[in-house]
Amino acid sequence: MRTDRSEIHADFPDQDSPFAWVAQICTGLLVVAAGTRAFHLLFSKDHTQWAWLDIVIALLAVIATVAGQAQRLPFQNVFLASAIMVAIGGSALALGARTGVPFGSVAYTESAGPRIFGTVPWLLPLIWIVVLFNARSVGRLVFRPWRKSRTYGLRVIALTCVMAVVFAFALEPYASKLNRYWLWRADQGTLAWYGTPWINFTGWLLISLLIMAFSTPFLLNKKPKKSPPFYQPLVIWVTIQTLFAAGAAAGGMKSALYFILFTVVAALSGALAGARW
Fold first, then answer.
1. What residues contact residue 38 under an 8 Å CB cut-off, 6+ apart?
2. Helix (H, G, I), strand (E, B), or coil: what is residue 75?
3. Cα dist. 251→71, 147, 216, 265, 271 in Å?
4. How far is residue 236 from each of residues 2, 185, 191, 274, measured CA to CA in Å?
5. pLDDT tens across 217-276, in order?
6. How many other C-beta atoms are found inside a 10 Å radius of the C-beta of residue 51?
7. Distance of CA 36 to CAs 50, 57, 112, 246, Å?
8. Which of 54, 49, 48, 63 is nearest to 33 (CA)?
9. How far apart are CA 219 and CA 78, in angstroms?
10. Which of 4, 18, 95, 132 has the most CB atoms lying inside 10 A of its own CB?
11. At what angle do helices 199-215 and 75-99 cross, to 10 degrees?
12. DSSP H helices in the chain
């Protein structure tokens, strides 16, 4: 898990890149789609009527994320890092579905969509791309003032993994409690977060750390240049978290709502403060 100080100035995308317009359009559409879904959740009694938008939102987030990262890194690096995230994350999800390790015992419902080899819904492994790429980029903004520190890379990796767990805490009430895309088989008396056993979040932390250990070498910019901060990942992160907050509000899950709002404010404050440097 080697860090390279040569990546410290690679914070802003190349606007001349052919991926620029893809990233901008998909990010804009993501904001519109998530806003539409959030509005429907808050003002409609039937939460499932527009559930198909969740698939659109997830796909737009994946495309926007990959295109955004490809503006500042060679596409082959982004592709390889994405493949590692999907392979490790998807394998962990499949293992969890069959054995309960490392996330806990879970059963996916028909609402989650077709499954790969009858095990994991096809869209779930792609979520790791959205979570880890954007968490890492937000972490780079937060630690921008310390980008010349020898521990900069390790700090970014640590915050990336913590933010992945934060994402899981926000995702579970929305996906398993409100929309019932999957159901947890937790034993009675097991410590849980809206029905999700706490071992799930330990699993997210460990798998995120494993993925970052293998993918980070592909995310180091070999041709760095000093440039302004890269805000697109922050927009994607806040947009998705805001959707989860709307879901928590619609489902009357106050603790989840307050938690998500707190973490969104913390991410915005830290990233915008760090970006000034």
1. 242, 243, 246, 247
2. helix
3. 38, 41, 37, 21, 29
4. 27, 31, 31, 18
5. 999 876 656 668 999 999 999 999 999 999 999 999 999 999 999 999 999 999 999 999
6. 17
7. 9, 10, 20, 11
8. 54
9. 7
10. 132
11. 150
12. 20-43, 52-69, 75-99, 124-142, 152-172, 199-215, 232-250, 254-275
The span from the CA of 25 to the CA of 6, in Å, is: 30
Cβ-contact 250, 213 below 8 angstroms: no
The Cα–Cα gap between 57 and 32 comes to 9
Prior bond of 74 cis (ω within 30°): no
pTM over 0.85: yes
Nearest to 32 by CA among 56, 15, 62: 56
- Reported as a single tens digit per residue, the pLDDT across 99-155 is 999 999 999 999 999 999 899 999 999 999 999 999 999 999 999 999 999 999 999
- What does the DSSP assignment read for 158-224? HHHHHHHHHHHHHHHIIIIIIS-SEEE-PPTT--EETTEETHHHHHHHHHHHHHHHHHGGGGS-SS-
Q: Are 132 and 164 in contact (CB under 8 A)?
A: yes
Using CA atoms, how far apart are residues 220 and 267, in angstroms rounded to an integer?
Answer: 23
- In the chain, the N- to C-terminal Cα span, in Å, equals 26
109's CB contacts (< 8 A; 6+ apart) are 180, 181, 182, 183
**Whose CA is closest to 133, among 237, 44, 34?**
237
Which residue in this structure is represented by tokens 């707190």? Answer: 262
d(CA 75, CA 81): 10
